[in-house]
Amino acid sequence: MEKKIPPKKTKPYTQNTKVSKVEEPEAVYNRTVKIIPSVNNFTYTEFKKIADKVPFTQTEWASILHISERTLQRYAKNNGSFAPINADRALQIAQVINEGKITFGKSDLFYKWLKQKPLMLEGSLSLESLTTTHGIQMVLTQLGRIQHGILA
After folding, report:
1. What SS3 state is found at 22?
2. What residue segments make up the domains of the chain, in order of their start?
3. CA separation (Å) from 76 to 42, 66, 70, 79, 125?
4. Using an 8 Å Cβ cutoff, are 91 and 51 in contact?
5. Which of 7, 24, 68, 80 is the most buried (most CB within 10 A)?
6. 123 forms bridges with which residues in the sheet?
7. H or E segment at 37?
């Protein structure tokens, strides 16, 4: 014969003591991550920080950002805000410049390398490669190959 066991009554968990935020352990995150400026509030001052890292001319920057030189001059004059699409492109170029600096040691050497129109498996690169998202990705791919010793 089977013996019937009555089910146990369980109570929901309730915390008896109140824990203050000071007593809670702090979550550890990677603190070396830089805060990326918002593309909505991207001003000429923030762009200038990026532009000072590499010796691109104003004409080259205008071509890369898909704006006229006159618009770039106007932004410089009154610290104007960039359109989000142009701000996003400037931040992408900042990433490319940082990778170029890691690869070549100096951003000037990266600029000279790019001006020489280096060859790669998919064709050749140039400064005009930075005007499209695909071109930016090709430059980043080639820099990664150089960093890993794959020069083809």
Report:
1. coil
2. 39-147
3. 12, 16, 10, 5, 29
4. no
5. 80
6. 120
7. none
User: Which of 64, 114, 125, 63 has the alpha carbon at shortest distance from 91?
Assistant: 64
Residue among 66, 56, 108, 106 at smallest CA distance from 88: 66
Sign of the dihedral through C-alpha 40, 44, 49, 52: positive
**pLDDT tens across the length of the chain (152 residues):** 667 777 777 777 676 766 665 555 555 555 555 555 567 788 999 999 999 999 999 999 999 999 999 999 999 999 999 999 999 999 999 999 999 999 999 989 999 999 998 887 777 888 888 999 998 999 998 998 888 887 65
Residues 6+ positions from 67 with CB-CB distance below 8 Å: 86
> pTM for the complete prediction?
0.70
Q: Which two tokens stand for residue 140?
A: 């980043």
Q: Write the single-letter amino acid at 89.
A: R
**Euclidean distance between CA atoms 56 and 60, whole angstroms:** 6
